[in-house]
Amino acid sequence: MTSNDQNLMNKLLPAMQNVQNALNDASLGGKIKVSTVHSMGVLKQSEPPSSGSFDPSYGDLMKGLLEFNSANGSPFAINPYPYFAYRSDTRPETLAFCLFQPNAGRMDGNTKIKYMNMFDAQVDAVYSALNSMGFKNVEIVVAETGWPFKGDDNDVGPSIENAKAYNGNLIAHLRSMVGTPLMPGKSVDTYLFALYDEDLKPGPGSERSFGLFKTDLTMVYDIGLSTSSQTQLLAAAAQPLVLAAATNTSTGTTNNNSSTSTSTTTGTGTSTSTSSSTNNISIRSGNGSNKVYLNRIFYLGLLYGFMGLSLICFFSFFLVLSWYPHTLFKG
Q1: Is 201 a catalytic residue?
Q2: What is the enclosing helix (H) or strand (E) of 297?
Q3: Distance, CA of 55 to CA of 61 (rounded, Å)
């Protein structure tokens, strides 16, 4: 939509409807959601968050897209990047505000709500824009967000420390389920940008340095989603389970295993978004574990007994063949 190419813009909604109709014909309409991704550039105003509104030049098209989202239960996908907000305001307090680090916060004069991080402020600005058009029930999905770990000499903000802080603190914020001030108690589905560096992408060096992994597949930094991190967590979680089987105490441990997929989208530039879906692994011990433990012993006993009986029958048949060979195979 920010391309200003009216031909493309006019074909966007019909293209989405064609995809939706194809899914409906395949009986997949309720299982696969169709949407399109927007940059923050579709907003005319975003500060304070309560005054968030869409650019009126997109009025009719945006209304049609939101009607489509509402009718099909599909999300409104947005790409908020606190990094770009910091790049235009490089004060130390702005950096802390963008990285979820301790800061004085920013007051929304209309709602008297103090925002403690830029991510919540940007998402709530989108919520306010949806609400102003009568579509506050359309779900918001963050299709891209991230922080570059390096850039050119004149790039402000990129570093491994900042990238690790932003992504790590964002994950912790989402897992807390605290939500945003205008959407409390709800974690917005969020996709990290990006799985790999895009080494052929044009523009500043920071544009090629958002990846959690380099193009040679080595890890740039660990935000707690790596296989090694998960293996360590699972190993630590397994120990209480063994002890609980002996002591009959009740404990619970939850770990997270993440799978990642990539998709290409165009917002304020062409970029690849990384989709991280989290699978919860719960280990619950107590009376139930003792029962399973005893059942395993019982079934192992049956198995060994069956194997022993089979061996006895085999050797008995062998002995019969040895004693009566001529009788059994006469003629």
Answers
A1: yes
A2: helix 287-323
A3: 11
